Amino acid sequence: MRFIFKTDYDQDIRIFKHSGYWYSYSILLLVLAMAPFVLGNYLQSQLVFVFIYATVGISLLILVGFTGQASLGHAAFLAIGAYTSAYCQQHGVPFVVYFPLAGILTGMVGVLVGFPALRLQGIYLVIATISFGAIVEEILARWESVTHGNEGMKLRTLELFGQAVPRDSPGFYFLCLAVLILVILATLNLLRSPTGRAFVAIRDSETAAKSMGIDVAAYKVRSFGISATITGLAGCLYAHKLSFISPEMFTLLLSIEFIIVIIIGGIFSLHGAVLGAIFIVMIDPFLTTLKDDLPGMIGNLVHVFGADVPTASKVQDQAASIASAPGLKGAIYGLIIVGFILFEPTGLYGRWLKIKLYFQTFPMYKAATFKRQKTYVKSERNR
């Protein structure tokens, strides 16, 4: 077990707590730098989506995990960033201009959404963000002079400093990786700042935060703005990766996928956003493969256990019809969320911490170590 002996207060806010972090993250960065030259185009493309989803997951962590505000409208913020990029590119604006512009414009919209959200909490705030997403989707479909309506918009190959950066090239891969690293570093510094500490105080207890002189309303709006800005930057990269965008791509289901990212990964850690993004991006090809292969496997198993060929074929056809049923993907996502909430509310990263602590303290590990003791301010006990 590693023991850290602290000798000054600066050690409490260091990004890397000890030298082991430098070695492990350096190795991880080296592996990611080698990945596009070793992996095929498909896996490289999947890693790009992991980077983009992880960026959105971090933006949701700032709003949901660190400030305690609910949101099911981040697909709308992603859409605003994507359409801003497409519109600017069509009018000859360079990438170095419309990339930050997409984040700034989306952040301004996030601030506007944050103001009415000040009077809402819990399920009412969730309903408000769902309504916001539906409004944005309808605007994108109806404002044909700007968004081309349901016909969608195509994006040309990204150009950076006069050089073309195709969406399947290593250059685009490194661009998305660089944006993710910068967002992670910026978020870590944000959490070490008074603003980040105010976010956490609001999440833990608004009453206690007010008593400490924190302007709760201002920080909630600021949280919405920062979260939307990061999502807008991810929307720009998302649009270039797909090279075509349309309103039906930014639905409530996409917002639910983003929520799944932080629930599965871990809602209180930046590591959780990355782990959740890996899970949500890689589960799609897994479910597709399972849907294609599972009926045949079931038919073969039925035949092995003594059924005749017609019966096995009938069972296989029934399994195939179930696998192709509409809404199956959403049902599986729902079961996954319920499973994590019931059995592992701290997500994949929380499970990793438990496993690591178990081996560090074996045989003295106590199962109650991670059991959260909920405390209340006296004025909040009857709520």
Mind explaining what this structure looks like?
The protein is mainly alpha-helical and 383 residues long. The protein folds into two domains: 19-264, ABC transporter involved in vitamin B12 uptake, BtuC (Orthogonal Bundle), CATH 1.10.3470; 285-369, no CATH class. The protein is built from 15 helices and four strands. Strands 1-4 form a two-stranded antiparallel ribbon. A hairpin with a 2-residue loop joins strand 2 and strand 3. Helix 2 crosses helix 11. The longest helix has 35 residues, at 270-304. The mean pLDDT is 82.
Annotation keywords:
two-stranded antiparallel sheet; two-stranded antiparallel ribbon; mainly alpha; 4 strands; 2 domains; ABC transporter involved in vitamin B12 uptake, BtuC; 383 residues; 15 helices; single chain
Low-confidence stretches: none
CATH architecture of the largest domain: Orthogonal Bundle
Arithmetic mean of pLDDT: 82
Class by SSE composition = mainly alpha
Largest sheet: 2 strands, antiparallel
What are the secondary-structure elements, in order, as H or E?
HHHHHHEEEHHHHEHHHHH
Strand order of the largest sheet: 1-4
Count of discrete alpha- or pi-helical segments spanning 4 or more residues: 15
Instruction: Determine the CATH topology of the largest domain.
Output: ABC transporter involved in vitamin B12 uptake, BtuC
The N- to C-terminal Cα distance equals 42 Å
Name the CATH class of the largest domain: Mainly Alpha
Strand content: under 5%
Computed Rg? 23 Å
The helix content is over 70%
What form results from the Cα inertia axes? globular
**Whole-number tally of structural domains:** 2
Number of strands: 4
